[in-house]
Amino acid sequence: MTEYLTTAGNTIAYDVTGDGPLVVLAHGIGDSRHSYRFLAPALAAHGYRVANVDLRGCGDSGVGWDGYSRTDIAGDLVAVVRHLGGPAVVIGHSISGGAATIAAATAPDVVAGLVELAPFTRAQSFDVGGLVRHKRFRTAYGHLAKVMFGGSLTSWKKYLDLAVPAKPADWDFELARIDAKLREPGRMEVLQAMCKASPSDAGAHLAGVACPVLVVVGSADPDWADPRAEGEKVVADLPHGRGELVVIDGAGHYPHVQTPDEVLALALPFLAETLARA
Questions:
Q1: What is the pTM of this model?
Q2: Of 101, 135, 91, 120, residue with least CA distance to 210
Q3: How do 3-7 and 10-17 pair as beta strands?
Q4: How far apart are alpha carbons 271 and 15 in whole angstroms?
Q5: Omega into 239 within 30° of 0, i.e. cis?
Q6: CA 149 distance to own-chain centroid
Q7: Cβ atoms 165, 258 nearer than 8 A
Q8: DSSP state letter for 15
């Protein structure tokens, strides 16, 4: 059942399944909580209370927010955890990896740990060499530019084709759902705003994260010329010993969609250890 939390004068949609320690799931841009359709029930089956959240402007959450930065999203996530009764581990994908970083640094009383999936958590430089050397990265960059500046839904779907190199069985249905959602008034504008939002606010908070952090990236993620190197930089910017990096071979930008069993196997021991200490 979809529930709604009013915060900052608008509504955040979420659903809760299972009983036990709290895990909050936050998706990436242009998507909704449905992207965790494989991971959420599996976590609930393993004894966790799973709150699956639609980011502001996405899914069933309201549109017309004042901002769509990682800092804005972090405030929403903290509000959800406080409303449901934390502490929680936050699992954040892409833009939400950065938002989760800010949430952990600014609300350490309610965020006990982070799992960052393909996170955009650091300021990005223009990688000319990477664009020249890596076709996958170059092609994805071109599609995302057309989304960011032109609002092209066709380009977004072409990007997703690269970002999920091995498709789940329900991919055609899922792509149709994403298409329909982004045709709703205001939804594409939210996607564009999130594309333009700089990760620098999240990067500035990495050194202030006191909780454990598991960073998971796919070796075939088209968002970076070298996904492993990006993950290593995130871990290096955290306080010493706080972060761990795992690279899933062959996974793209959506490891929780493409390789949910591998993500679950990584998340379960991290959750058990982290929430036992919380």
A1: 0.96
A2: 101
A3: antiparallel
A4: 20
A5: no
A6: 22
A7: yes
A8: E
Which pLDDT score is estimated for 197?
96
What pLDDT does 24 receive?
98
Contact criterion met (CB below 8 Å) for 48 and 106: no
- The rounded Cα 235 to chain-centroid distance in angstroms is 17
Phi, psi of 188 (to 5 degrees): -65, -35
Radius of gyration over alpha carbons of the chain, in Å?
17
Domains defined for the chain, CATH in brackets: 3-277 (3.40.50.1820)
Query: pLDDT, tens digit, for every residue of 157-215?
Result: 999 999 999 999 999 999 999 999 999 999 999 999 999 999 999 999 999 999 999 99
63, with CB counted inside 10 A (0-12, 13-18, 19+), is middle
Tokens of residue 88, six digits: 């929680």
Measured CA to CA, the distance from residue 22 to residue 48 in angstroms comes to 6
264 neighbors 271 (Cβ within 8 angstroms): no
- 3 state DSSP class of 190: helix
Q: How many residues does the chain have?
A: 278
Tell me the pairing of strands 22-26 and 88-93: parallel
> How far, in Å, CA of 60 to CA of 63, rounded?
9
